[in-house]
Write a structure and sequence with these properties.
Length: 108
Amino acid sequence: MKHDLLHIQGKPYVLVPLHEYRELVTGTSVPAEDPLPSDVLDALTARQESPLRILRRHRGLTQQQLAEAAGLSRPYLTEMEKGRKPGSLRALRAVAKSLDVDLSYLAG
């Protein structure tokens, strides 16, 4: 396995694929029973978008569909997705259940 060595401001850094980074950070590889594909887990690890948005899109749901499934208003879900509101534990649990994912993906 080859990794690229970068120098930034005179310091060496190793460039590794995101899935390898994820394994280093968590200490484990993706379990076979994990319901999420590697590209979704990579997107969650990169944290460039809201985990809620990543998972909602992966499941092919609109905000309205997810809000209804979780028993929330669409505006509240939108605020959670945009990071303007953290979401209550009850709301996060309902969303996680509706997305069929572990709560840790949303609350982590």
